[in-house]
Amino acid sequence: MKRLLFLIHRWSGVVLALLMLLWFVSGLVIVYSSQMTQNRAQHWARAESLLPEAGWLSLGEAWQRSSAGRAEVASGKREQSAEISIHEARLVRQAGSPVWLIEDSRGQRIALSANDGSVRKVLPEEAVRIAEQWVIAGGEASVTVRYIETLENPSILRNQEALKPFHRIALAGQAGGELLISARTGEVVHASTRIERGMYWAGNWLHLFRFLDLAGLGEKRVDVLLWLAAGAFVATLTGLIVGWLRWRPGLFGKGTYAEGRVHPYKVSWFRWHFWAGLLGGALVFTWTLSAYLNGNPWQIFSPANPNRAEMARYVGKALPAAMRDWHPEQSAAVSPEVVELAWRHLGGESVLLAYQRDGQRFHLAAGVRRFSEASVSKAAQRLVGSFDVADLALQSEYDSYYYPRHGRGLVDRPLPVLRVALVDDAGTRVYVDPQDGRLLLRQDQSRRVYRWLWSALHHWDFGWLYLRPVWDVWMLTWIGFGLVLSVTSLVLAWRRLTATFRRNSRPVPKNKTRSQPALVTEGQGS
Fold first, then answer.
1. Could you say which of 90, 297, 366, 432 is the most buried, measured as most Cβ atoms within 10 Å of its Cβ?
2. Distance, CA of 270 to CA of 123 (rounded, Å)
3. Which positions ≥6 away from 508 have C-beta within 8 Å?
């Protein structure tokens, strides 16, 4: 049994040594790569001042006038208003023109002109004007912009299906800067320099096997990652066991190896591999295990996000009259710092929020000041299927499940937040922004277990470890051990393969069988 353990570790290491080295290197790059997909705060920081004017259409007017255009965009068939509802509507100014940006109950995104209600299609020349405004707002007036091409599925973007296609815009004089602008809504979705894109290719592209998407194997990518992670887990687990079996610290009267060594290895590569595995193997074990579970094998964990039908139930179908009939000129006196007015609703309640360039938000009198606890409770019940509410609390601090991940700020995880616990078999809790009604997080018992087995073991984002620079020191230390372990694995794998092929290629004299050279070296079983 012990020999089988050694063989499994040896040959799984031979097969996976290079892969694990790439995973550790790319993981290190990911830790310190900048976020290229533009978040809400970045949008507001570079947006045009809204300055509402008389004559702009209300949401209801724009929606009604766009009926034929929306039907043409959807599938050539006229939509039935009873089937499609509005989840969110945002009024912005793009290239000087007022636009209603709408997300509907299907998850589709559409832009409607607030001047005439037409469905907006952002042409390349208009994307250039939007890009010019974007660089000027960022204090980069010397940068010139140039249209390159329109892409349907840029490999550098993820989870942006509702916004495609995208206009690719070059920013001359900004170290290879580029923008991707949605041809559907006119939003700047992606902004990067040449170095940032290089970090992406060296990080996410390698770490998550995004190159399989380019090869047309996107549907198999998760399965490939799943089984490679399983192999890495087996290699790490057997390595830990081998290391502990080979370690003889001389405690409790147990003898050591020759010359008082606590391990059997004299060759440097074996010694480095032994110590890196013995000291850092436990963390490598947690990374390989959590990477495997991240693929959700056999769907043992519930889905992370609500589907469209669930979100439609959560928001509700009826469009409140205040949201439908409000005219932008009623807010003509707002500050020039306001760059967006956004309507959201839950059931029959609706709120109108004004967002400033600095990310601050405030309510306008047209809607309710904030969603009531009753409205949030009913929305949460609709989401999971009308179960009773066990507890509802206004939470002013982060907890172990609702917290800002690295790269996310208060815009994505605001406080205070309403936490609603439901009396269902899954033990569902939902976290809702009481100001705009956004469903920020849904957690059932399955996802809470997943949080600890995946995020906690892979990212170490809990307790005092989550404080920076403590988190950086922790991660860099163990990634360093992983790099040493991977490099030494690669060297030892190469030596094992060259020795094997050299032995197999040696000619055998006639009438003699091939002798079996002793392979019990300093690295046996490592």
1. 432
2. 61
3. 514
**What separation in angstroms does the CA of 446 have from each of 304, 356, 399, 429, 458?**
10, 38, 17, 11, 17
Report the distance separating Cα 116 and Cα 193, nearest Å.
Answer: 37
- Whole-number pLDDT of residue 367: 72
Q: What are phi and psi of 177, to 5 degrees?
A: -65, 145
With a CB cutoff of 8 Å and minimum separation 6, the contacts of 62 are: 100, 112, 113, 114, 117
pTM attached to this predicted model: 0.87
pLDDT tens sequence across 186-229: 999 999 999 999 999 999 889 999 888 878 787 889 999 999 99
Q: Tokens 């020349």 label which residue?
A: 125
d(CA 18, CA 525): 19
Please state, in angstroms and rounded to a whole number, the distance separating the CA atoms of residues 481 and 459: 16
Q: Which helix (H) or strand (E) holds 23?
A: helix 2-31
Residue 246 backbone phi and psi in degrees, to 5? -85, -15
Grade residue 79 by pLDDT with cuts at 50, 70 and 90: very low
Between 504 and 133, whose confidence is greater? Answer: 133
- Cα four-point dihedral sign 70, 72, 73, 74: positive
Q: What is the pLDDT of residues 305-348, one digit of tens each?
A: 899 889 999 999 888 999 999 999 998 888 999 999 999 999 88
Is the pLDDT at 80 greater than 60? The verdict is no
User: Which tokens is 280 given?
Assistant: 């850092």
Tens of pLDDT, residues 276-304: 999 999 999 999 999 999 999 999 999 98
| Residue 458 in this model has a pLDDT that exceeds 90 | yes
Task: Give dist(CA 472, CA 455) in Å, integer.
Answer: 16
Q: Collapse the DSSP code of 268 into the 3-class scheme (helix H, G, I; strand E, B; otherwise coil) and give the result.
A: helix
Q: Where are the alpha helices (DSSP H) in 321-432?
A: 321-325, 373-384
Please tell me the predicted confidence (pLDDT) of residue 526.
Answer: 39
Amino acid sitting at position 414? P
Preceding amide of 469 cis, omega within 30: yes
pLDDT at 412: 85
Sequence-separated (6 or more) residues with CB below 8 Å from residue 152: 164, 165, 166
Burial grade of 52 (CB within 10 A; 0-12, 13-18, 19 or more): buried
Nearest C-alpha neighbor of 129 from the set 108, 146, 154, 151: 146
Amino acid at 467: L
Beta bridge partner(s), residue 86 = 104
Spatial separation of the C-alpha atoms in residues 394 and 159, rounded to whole Å: 31
328 Cβ neighbours under 8 A, 6+ residues apart: 52, 53, 56, 57, 58, 91, 98, 114, 341
Query: How far from chain centre, in Å, is Cα 254?
Result: 49
Tell me, what's the pLDDT at 216? 79
**How far are the Cα atoms of 31, 224, 237, 460, 466 from residue 25, in angstroms, in the given order?**
10, 19, 21, 18, 22
